[in-house]
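Lab manual, section 2.4: Encoding a predicted structure.

Procedure: take the sequence of the chain (50 residues), apply the prediction step described in section 2.3, and record the output as structure tokens. A sample record is shown.
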Amino acid sequence: MAAIHSLFAYAAAWHTEHAATIQRVLAPAPKRVEHNLEIFLTEAEVDALK
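Recorded output:
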């Protein structure tokens, strides 16, 4: 991964016509984490559970 980053960092300096593609390659990858969905019960739902 470091070699790819180094190559595209070099290309960014010399091939400005491909700046958009190079920027996408050098951008940090999003984390692959599942987010927990928090759901709160309404007062009517709480009463129904009693």
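Check your result against the sample. The CA atoms of residues 13 and 19 lie 9 Å apart.
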